[in-house]
Specification:
With 172 residues, the protein is an all-alpha fold. Helix 2 packs antiparallel against helix 3 and helix 3 packs across helix 5. It comes from Candidozyma pseudohaemuli.
Length: 172
């Protein structure tokens, strides 16, 4: 499917954030703020590459991509600090702050919030039936539940095994 047709399948939050990012790019260009302009261009490039690769165009996938970019900048900042290059470390931290602003603008729950909700769900399932299998837990996590929690089902399902073991006290 062509990227332009896939854009029609984007969620409203995804589309709104892209509009915000493009507006901020214009402002940065007018203000001649090179750091912000270049960072925003990197964000837009990452988004475009993920669209070309066929990634789902949801706020959850966008948050995942932006968080990955933030983590890369933080890691680079630490590496520069250990090498005594505080000027480069500061630039990386500023880029991370610019990208973080867009993650915060997304209607996506934090990892801690999702973990808390998942733990509550698992404890409720344990109270109903202490021998609930992990497969039954996966069936409980539908797209509707994920949307209500402000996440995607894939993110929640990735957290299930660790919490299942903690709540039920067994592997599977």
């Amino acid at each position: 499917m062509l990227p332009s047709l896939r854009r029609l399948q984007a969620t409203p939050a995804y589309t709104q954030l892209l509009a915000l990012i493009k507006g901020d790019l214009k402002k940065a260009m007018i203000a001649k703020n090179n750091l912000e302009k270049n960072t925003i261009r990197l964000v837009l490039s990452t988004v475009k590459n993920s669209e070309i690769d066929g990634a789902k165009q949801t706020e959850f996938e966008l948050a995942r991509s932006l968080n990955k970019m933030i983590k890369q900048r933080i890691d680079s900042s630490h590496a520069f600090k250990t090498q005594g290059r505080d000027d480069l470390a500061l630039a990386e931290e500023e880029e991370a702050d610019i990208i973080r602003k867009y993650v915060i603008a997304l209607p996506v729950a934090s990892e801690e919030g999702i973990l808390n909700k998942l733990k509550i769900l698992l404890e409720e399932l344990k109270q109903k039936d202490g021998s609930t299998k992990i497969g039954s837990v996966f069936k409980e996590i539908t797209e509707e539940v994920a949307t209500n929690w402000g996440s995607s089902s894939a993110v929640i399902k990735a957290m299930v095994p660790g919490l299942y073991k903690e709540v039920f006290g067994q592997k599977k």
